[in-house]
Amino acid sequence: MTTTGLDPAALRGDFPILEREVHGKPLVYLDSANTSQKPRQVLDAMADYYERHNANVHRAVHTLSEEATHLFEQARGKVARFAGASERATVFTKNASEAINLVAYAWGLRNLREGDEILVTEMEHHSNLVPWQLVAGLTGARVRAVPVTGDHLLDLDALDRLLGGRTRIVAVSAMSNMLGTLNPVPAVAERAHAAGALVLADAAQAVPHAGARLDELGADFLAFTGHKMLGPMGVGVLAAREEVLEGMEPFLGGGEMIRDVAIEGSTWNDIPWRFEAGTPNVAEAVGLGAAVDYLEALGMDRVRAAEADLTAYALKRLAEVQGLRVYGPAELEHRGGVLSFTLGSIHPHDVAQVLDEEGIAVRAGHHCTMPLHRRLGVQATTRASFSVYSTADEVDALVAGLEKTARFFA
Q1: CA 346/CA 353 separation, integer angstroms
Q2: Residue 364 and which of 50, 88, 288, 345 are 20 to 30 A apart at CA?
């Protein structure tokens, strides 16, 4: 149904898990914002690493270690290029949450003072809120939130009012994991920088759904994760402006992040290794590099366009379900492939359970956005989310499942 040249149905053969059945029915996987499925190219790259090259990196001169180090740093180069950052300022972490914590502690703990302000938004994932609350509690800084408008967009007028001389950093989701809202991070960054503040963009959703890049967003930090972009769990990324990262002290200590160690004290390694204490997730980094190869071969413009087409179709079909309310912006240009909804008075967990009996995987709950759900006046929602392998047929299956759910609870 897309007009982009991207054929999700043809891609599905690359994803082995999509061949399985659930409760005797073909799997309809609509939970990609939670974690995406992995193509054979990623699985094969990781298997090849373990079968042929497994060794610790940066620590030995034998052949396997040199091969592993080459593969690890080659993956860093791929990820850096994909994220619009330099290799020196592309740090491997465990996930996006750890990338944000890295900034909160390595920068925030050392730079925030009593009375300073951290701006977040009402639509932040807990991972871009709780670390700032923790650091604020240690430094005496204050966390303030930019509100969401009635049409589920970021209130830029309120941002202008909140920005001031005590604002030190603005932490903003580049794409809401609940509303699907694509936030205008370049406009936020321009305003924040004019006020002398740094900007961290949580791009866990925006990288796989919209091809977000550090250089195009104008942010100082970009956090994202492998498992939401066709890569493995256990690897995330902090991409940053070199000059900002260069001025930061590490927040985790251990092997490889040091230059010299004495009992009395230590000196630190260059970036990015300064922030990669201990043995890294080498196979996962290699898998993430393979995921980048896969996405680049598709073309992120085509990925985004195909997802927009599918989202438009899903919004049209979901509007046919009586009693269903979808949250998020009405305009496609402002939203990614994430659709959170309620179905009358039926609890979202019940909706998800009935759908699961039909082989349809969705997520139900607060999606790690409790403040946003309170702002919207709901305790929980059901969420369907797409990736490159999602099809119109799956949307049709979702609609049929929702209509069956409504009849069941009638």
Answers
A1: 11
A2: 288
pLDDT of residue 2 exceeding 60, the answer is no
Per-residue pLDDT at 380 exceeds 90 = yes
Catalytic residue list: 368
CA–CA separation, 171 and 133 (whole Å): 12
- pLDDT digit string, tens, across residues 123-153: 999 999 999 999 999 999 999 999 999 999 9
C-alpha distances in Å from residue 70, one per residue of 47, 54, 64 = 16, 12, 10
Secondary structure in 3-state letters for 53-79: HCCCCCCCCCHHHHHHHHHHHHHHHHH
**Residue 3 has what pLDDT?**
53
**pLDDT(196) > 70:** yes
For the record, the structure tokens of 230 come out as: 């066709």
